[in-house]
Amino acid sequence: MQVLSGARAGERWVVRVRQPDGSASDVVGWVVGLDDDAVTLEGLLDPASPATPADSWHVPLRDVVVARRAPAARGGPDPGRTPAAAVDRLGVEAWAVDLDPLGDWFLRAGGGFTGRANSCLAVGDPGMPVDEAAAAVEAYAAEHGIAPLAQVVTGSDEDAALRTLGWAETYVATDVLVTRLADLLGEVPPDPRVVVDEELTAGWRATFDEYRPHDADPALVTRLLDGRRPRAFARVEVDGRVVAVARGHLADGWLGVAAVWTRPEHRRQGLGTAVVLALAGWAARRGARWSYLQVETANDVAHAAYERLGFVRHHRYHYLAPPSA
């Protein structure tokens, strides 16, 4: 087993395997089993059927020519080259209750719980003059009983066009941070303290409610959290109590990370980092290559923590409200 010495379950390895005709070929996968006789690796999982790997290999160690640890996720182009509008659209399905298109824009309503779920994502062409689109945003908000808001990329054409109509900035500005999953995961092994579920559990939900106290309809918040797949919920338990959480969502090869929180008495133990990395590993097994998350611009502590993990600022967005609001 010397060629695979140090290999641990959950790590991604490249294994060169000797074939019956004397040739050799490489298999790349995540280690799911290893003993003195053989190694078992699995390839990418299908997001639509997460328990089923596309490929699986059971390789006798006597047939292994050479092996090396591979990056924990597949590489990819610099995420900074992805347009801001495209990154913001990734989050549309990640955090939404009711969702309706308006050309390239998206009208969103979620009972008033969070700005993202209760605003129009105004990026791209709404398919009509901006003044008509703005009126449609206000009408949609009135129909759903929420305040009219538009989420715009700071400094974008949409930002300028709505400001010309008298819309003004409200709420705090938010920075969108990005990184490659391979860079985020590095060579850090999976943390055994973290459990990643693909179903929303009562313990995770109760901890989220402590993190984000609210008076919203509980069923509506459940729809928001549990809504659009593929998504996952990372948690750490201590003595049967959930003490750290994070939520992840996959879209077009990107992992969106949200709701990262650790109970105050359990901070400075690396649990916040652990749940983020666990979601990154979950996403990598499903073919994702990049990650994004959103942080209030003024939250220096969170910015510093994510920068240590390798996240960099991609762009900034804010919300605009009409003069009638």
TrEMBL record:
Q: Which branch of life, at top level?
A: Bacteria
Q: Which residues form the N-acetyltransferase domain?
A: 192-325
Q: Extract the CDD domains matched here.
A: NAT_SF (cd04301)
Annotated InterPro entries: Acyl_CoA_acyltransferase, GNAT_dom, Rv0428c-like_C
Q: Which PANTHER family match?
A: L-2,4-DIAMINOBUTYRIC ACID ACETYLTRANSFERASE, N-ACETYLTRANSFERASE
What's this protein's name? N-acetyltransferase domain-containing protein
